[in-house]
Every structure is written in C-alpha cells, then in structure tokens.
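User: My collaborator and I are trying to settle a disagreement about how two of our proteins should look. Neither of us wants to argue from intuition anymore, so we agreed to look at predicted structures for both before our next call. Could you fold the first one, then the second, and keep them clearly separated?

Assistant: That sounds like a sensible way to settle it. I'll keep them separate. The first protein:
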Amino acid sequence: MTADKKIAWEYKAGTNTEVHACQPLPDGRVLVVECGPSRIVEVDREGKVAKEIKLTPPPSNVRLHDQFRGVRKTLDGHYFVSRKGEHVVEELDSDGKSLRRIQVPGDVHEVVPLPAGHLLIDCGDGHKVVELDASEKVVWELNENDLPGNPLRLVAGCQRLPNGNTVFCNWLGHGHVGDAQAHFFEITPDKKIVWEFADHTHFKTINQIQLLDISGDVTKAEIYR
C-alpha cells in the first residue's frame, strides 16, 4: 500500500490457504509461502506467479495452520523454510531440492540468514532462540528465563542490527494477553535489554517487526530480518 492507503500491488491466495510469510526480492518479485498448497511462489508486479517451488507436505498430523511460518530466500537463490509443526528448518536450492533439515527445539517461527553462514532461529513456543554457525553448532542462545521480567512466551519475528544487537517479538498469546511485560525488546549479545516496548492499551499481541531507521536494502540482505 502507498502512504495514502492505496493498493499498489496485491496477490490473493486460494481457498483453504494461509499465508504467514512474504519477502520482497531484488528483481521486484515478492516471495509468498502458502500453507495448504504447500508451496513457495514468487509473484511478479502484475500479481502473476512467475516461479513455483513445491514443498514436501507436512505429515498428516500437522494441521494447516501449523505447516509453515517464516521463509527467506538468500542472495545465492537458496530458500530457508520454517516448518513450524515439524520443528524443522529446511534449506532448499534454487530448484527446490532439499539440501538439509535442521531439527530445532520448538515450533520454529522465523529463520534469519546471517553473515558467514550463520542462522538465527526463533523457536516459538519452545521459548528459545538459537544462533547456529555454518556447521550447525549453537554459538549463541537465549532461553526462557534469561531476561529478568521478560520470560520468553512465543518468540516470533526478529531483526539483527548492525551493532550486533537483536530485536525480538515476544508474542503474548496462548494465555498471556495482558501480561505486564514487553511486546518486543532489543538485547545485546550478552543478554542485556537496551530498550523495550509495551502498550497493552493499543496492542494485544505483536508477531513481527522491522525497524525502519536502519539503513540498507532488505532485498539485498543488508538488513537481517
């Protein structure tokens, strides 16, 4: 939408479909992941599907709402898929071939590719965040009670800042609406809170965030979101 609320572009998914992730791409397309059809599509500026990647459907015991969350395409054309109900991050090549599956401790909501092959993974109701290096070794983690006054409920959207700090959304649903704690906060690598935001009058829950005063082009991986 434009600043004056006019629709500049849109894509409408089919029936029995949920969309929980999208990403603007350098070529002007927009990546969309669809629960139900189990696919990634890249949609052009006319709203037409220009590329389709079929995803392996989750097991039958994973309900439609829990199939997929955050999906990111990298500059080399790979895709990182948050397979929420399976507690798995999957990497695909540019043709959709599965390269690896990483088991994670929770219903993954977001995977953010970082420099040097690192991955920042938000584990949802697993009350945990992990950063893995290129060999899938945990090099940093944030656990449920590491932040006094801010127990991790459902860890959702996040953004890595140029100074090494990270902003996290702490989604307060599933019985925590109205809890006297922050919706999102910025923390340092040594787990100190820099600032936090809480407004329980205007917001019940907040799932995603992007700081708009960070310089860089998100489509060129200059903003790690």
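The second protein, kept apart from the first:
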Amino acid sequence: MYLYRKISLLIIPLYCVFLQFFGCLLFTSFAFSQKETKSESAKIKEAQKKALRFIVFGDWGRNGEDNQRETAQGMGIIAKIFKPEFIASMGDNFYPSGVRSTRDHSWLASFEDIYTAHSLQTDWYVVLGNHDYKGNPQAEIDYTDIDRRWNMPARYYSKIIFIGNDSTQGVLLVFLDTTPFLSEYYVTSEHNVKGQDTAMQRIWLEKTLSNAPSYVKWKFVFGHHPLWTGGGRMKAAETVEMKNIFRPIFEKYHVNAYFCGHEHSLQYIKPEGFTHYFISGAGSETTPAIVHPDGGQFAKSVNGFMEVTVKDDQMEVNLINYVGENIYSITIPHP
C-alpha cells in the first residue's frame, strides 16, 4: 500500500507535466494554424486589391419580362461574391422605344425595381442602343444627375480606372455611341439619329486612344453594335459597316477588347488581329447564335452576363448564365 501511494505521488506530477506539455503543443499548433489561415486570407484580399473587376451585359429593359428579372437576380448573387467595381451596360436599355423623359415609368419598371440587389448598387457605365434612339437619348444622359449609380455623361465618353489603386497600372475605358454610324437608321424617322456628328466622334475616338497616358496598360472599348457576330446579323450591312469603320482604328491603337450587345446571346470571337471581341446582349430576350466561322470561340443563346477580371499581366473573362453557372472562361495574357 505504501509502495502504491509512493508510485501515485510520482505519476500524478508526471501526468500533469505531460498534459501541460502537450497542451502547449496543441495550443501552439492551433495558434499557428489560425495565424496561417489569417495570413492566407490576407493574401487573398491583397490579390483582390490588385485586380479590376467589372460586369458586362446589355439588351435588358423589358419591364422584368423575358427572363430580365431572373437574370438580374442571378447577376446580384454572383456580384455579391465577385464584387464588381462597375457594371457596363451595352445599350438597348429600354424596350421597345427608349424613354421619353427622366420621369418615364420605364426607369422604375425596367431599372430601379429590377436591379435591386445590394451588390448591384455600384457605378453603371451605360451606352445607347438603337432602341434607345427610338425615344429620347438625352433623357438617359440627364438621368446621370438623378440616380447615383447611372453614369452616362454624354453620348460617348471615356474614363481611366486604376488596377488596385495603383497609379502605374491604368485601364482606359472608352464608351461609344454606335447607332448614328449605321446607314439603316437614317432610312426612316423612327430613330432620332439625325444631327449626330459621327466624324467628330471618330476624331475623338482616335485622339482618346492615341493620347492614352503611358501608365495605361489595357484599352477597352464598349459599344452597342458588333463587328463580328454568330447571330442573325452575321452578314447584315450594319455589321459590315461597323467592321469597316472601327476595325482599322482598334488595330492601329491596340485596343485589347471590344465589348458590345445588340445580338441577344453570349459570344466570344477572336478573328485575326490584335483585338478580342465579346458580345454580351442576353440581359432579357435571347435569339439564336452559332460559333462564328471566322475566329469564333464560343456562342450560346442563353440569358446571362460576363464578369471581367483585369490584372497587370492578364485579363480573365467568364461567361455566366442567369442561374450563375460559368459556361465559358478565357484568360488573355497582356500582349
């Protein structure tokens, strides 16, 4: 009995030392694990700061019909994760005939009451489409002074945004007004294009691209009409006109990508040359599309949008359908 008590007196302190030692090890391991997790989280946040993110979509304003509302909901869910710095709207913002004024009911029915997600309450940079020219285009410009997120300071305009607030990594955004360039819109008085000085806009475009500061690493142009399309307008006169007018300019000044709508589908086309072409016009009604025979990489007639991530050395474009599925991705290295 005496021996048992003596052994117990020896074992208990040793057991306590054992617990203390391994307890410290476990705590140290846990603390290190927590520190590592926080470190990884910090790295992810730092990586996010070094990228510019935005969403591109168009052809949407249908009072919530033709899957507009469902696409808006899907876009809101994805934007909550993606956290875009801005949203680029590719025209035909209000069907069938634009808006009459800044008090038109369409502002509520097709915009304010549709894109309600908190994640979509960011800057929208907007261009005009041919349907907008059936109404009062100036009203869409004037709405810039009414709604905080709506940005259309003029019929065409430009902006430089920096990647992660790095003043040495600029992205030039150029927003065009393409409808007045196309002859078919002058045939009738249905579209209010008369009086628009396309020669002046063309001079402005070349000057804006050629005078881009040295810190601009990427040049993106946004407009409503495509230069290439696998949709129903593949061989249309307007598509040929767009190509003849703008392709030489894009090539001359090394425009990295041109984003547009007009065709109600999601497409990516890379013809011979410098510029990549993206069609994102599936904000509501969809129309058939095929992969373009001249450099077409992807085409699908499905509601959705595009999310674009720009870094100093590459850009990534993801095509997302309205239920949030990534249906195509392309990574383009900086040339």
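Some points you might bring to the call about the second protein. The domain at 50-333 is CATH 3.60.21.10 (Purple Acid Phosphatase; chain A, domain 2). The first strand starts at residue 52 and ends at 57.
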